[in-house]
Amino acid sequence: MLEHYRSLGIASFSVNVNVREGGDACVQRVEEVVRAFGTAIASVTTGAWLHGSNQVIYSRVRAVHPDDWFVLADCDELQVWPGEIASLIAWCERRGYDHVEGCFVDRLAPDGGFPDYRFGVPLGEQYPLGAYLSYPLGGANPCKVVAAKGSVELGPGQHFANGGSACPAADIFVPVHHFKWTGGIVERLRRRAASRARARDPYWDESARIVAHCDANGGGIDLADPRFLTAPCEPAYAYWDAVKRECAGFAESRRRRVARGNLRVWSS
C-alpha cells in the first residue's frame, strides 16, 4: 500500500494504526514495515473500530496542517488517479476546490471466494475482478473523499465532506480499488456486526447483510448477481462509468439535501 502511493508521487506519509487491545503484535509488525519504508507510525489508538473511529484519527492528524492537501486511504484502498496527483491537486487549488471524491471498485478473486493474500504475488493477479458491492450488497455508502485540504471536515469513514467545495465528478472522480475481500473477511464482518450492535453503532447491519449473503452462497459472493456489475479489471473495469455515475449522483444528492437542511451533516 505504501509503495503504491509512493509510486503516485506521494512523498510524505502519516501512518495511523488502530488495534483492538493494547500490546497487539500487529503494531510491532507495522512499525517494522514503515521503518523499512523510511517513515514511522504517527499514532496508535486502541479499541473497537466503530464508524467514527477514523474520522477522529484523520481529523487530529490533518488539523496540524489545515492548508495542506492530504490523500486519504485505508490500508486496503489503492486509488487509481487519472493523472499525476500533484498536478491534479494544483488544478483543483487554482479553481477553489478543496476536496476530491471517488468511490469503491471492490476487488474479488476469480470464483468470488475469499482466498488468503499471497505475499509477493501482485494483488491484481490474485483479485482480478472488479465489482460494485458496498451499496447493492451491504447498503453501505460506496463514496470516498480521496483527497482534501486539512481544514475540510470529513464525515465518518471519509465517505463525505461536511461542507467545502468538491471538485466536480465530471472533472475528477477517482476509483478506489478496495482489497477488503480476502481470507477471513466473513468472520471479521461477523465479529464487527456483533461488536457494533453491542455498541449501538447504527451501521452494524451493513456488515450483517454481507455476512448473510455469503452464508447463503457457500461462503462467497454470487458473481452472477446482476446488481454487482462484476467484470475483469484488466485492461479496464468495464462498468466504471456506470458505477461512477451512480456514486457521483449519491454524493451530489447528499450535498443538496444538506444545503436544504434536510439532512444532518454527520449522517451517512
What spatial form do the alpha-carbon principal axes imply? globular
**Secondary-structure content class:** alpha+beta
Number of strands: 9
Can you give the helix content as a percent range?
25-40%
Biggest sheet overview: 7 strands, mixed
Q: Average pLDDT value?
A: 90
Cα distance spanning the termini: 27 Å
Report the radius of gyration as a whole number of Å: 18 Å
Q: Low-confidence segments, ≥5 residues, pLDDT <50?
A: 264-268
Q: What quaternary form is this? A: single chain
Which percent band covers the strand fraction? 15-25%
Helix/strand order, N-terminal first = HEHEHEEHEHEHEEHHEH
Can you count the helices?
Answer: 9
Walk me through what this model shows.
There is one protein chain. The chain has nine helices and nine strands. It is an alpha+beta fold and 268 residues long. Strands 3, 4, 5, 6, 7, 8 and 9 form a seven-stranded mixed beta sheet that branches. A two-stranded parallel sheet has the order 1-2. Strand 1 (15-19), helix 2 (25-37) and strand 2 (41-46) form a beta-alpha-beta unit. The longest helix is centred in the last third of the chain and has 21 residues, at 240-260. The radius of gyration is 18 Å and the shape is globular. Residues 264-268 have low confidence and may be disordered.
